Amino acid sequence: MKKFKMLKVMVLVLALVFAAGSGMARAVDKCPDNFVFLVDQSGSMYMHIVGSQVKMAIAKKVLLGINDMIPDMRYNSALQMFAPVQTVVPVGPYDRAAMAKGIKSIKEEQAIFGRLTPMGPGIMALDPVLAKMSGNTAVILVSDGMANQGPDPVEEARAIYSKYPNVCIHIISLADASDKKGKEILTAINKMNTCSVMAEGVALECDAAAMEKFVSSIFCTPKKAAPKEEVIVLRGINFDFDKSNIKPEFKPVLDEAVRILMKNPDIRVTIEGHTDAMGSEAYNQKLSERRAAAVYDYFLSKGVPSSRMRSVGYGELRPIATNATEEGRALNRRAELKVEK
To answer: Is the whole-model pTM more than 0.90?
Structure first.
């Protein structure tokens, strides 16, 4: 462990680790055979809730954290969205990787104004999904509760309970202090059934213990989240557009990395290259490979053995910031070191 702590001395930053937490209302009576993530993608979900955080960005982090902790059991699952209604992951045997891919595909930026919130129809749209599932089903509703179009969402939730008595609707609330009506709607749905668990999304994002409690309350025996691979972003090693060369000003950061690697001969690393979304996917794949290779060759020239390194490119597939702005694209044009433990 000591050698990994030493890596943190470098001008590097650990990649984001998904965490969460909040108090729960009640525990479930029965363990689910199926589950559905039902995610609100209305305009209000693309507003800020805490500081500069967008509600949907928080929702994605929390869903990914839950997905990591779901027990290794046979479930049928689905990922649905509403406002508008959209099937992201259709009903089928639960696949952790496929669900994570579906969650990551959710947009973090959409229009806010002029998009009404038909939450009631969104809950109604669960009907054909639930009809394909047998046994106990957990619906995990992620929303700020805002509803300004269509039938009453509380009454639609009541109708779902009436038709599907083995369903339990759990809630992750993204309602903030200004969303009084939204909080009231979510609370009313939560109070319909003693099985229902409700938690605050912002709190879940911040407290891993509360995240585990939330998952345990729904799935009975949560799988501990696997230790995250230690991914280290080389601060300052952000490439120019369409370039893979290492600039002179980058070298002090790389030299410090070399020093630590040479001092700790048991450390092995994977060097990852990434791009922004400008250009074709095929071109960006090759560009990312060249960027990873540039760092690899630099380390090799400084004496780090090739047996302790490998390089890989991920193209535009793993952004850490939005590609809608130049600042975000610049952050995505990066290299990372993954420490292989």
So the answer is: no
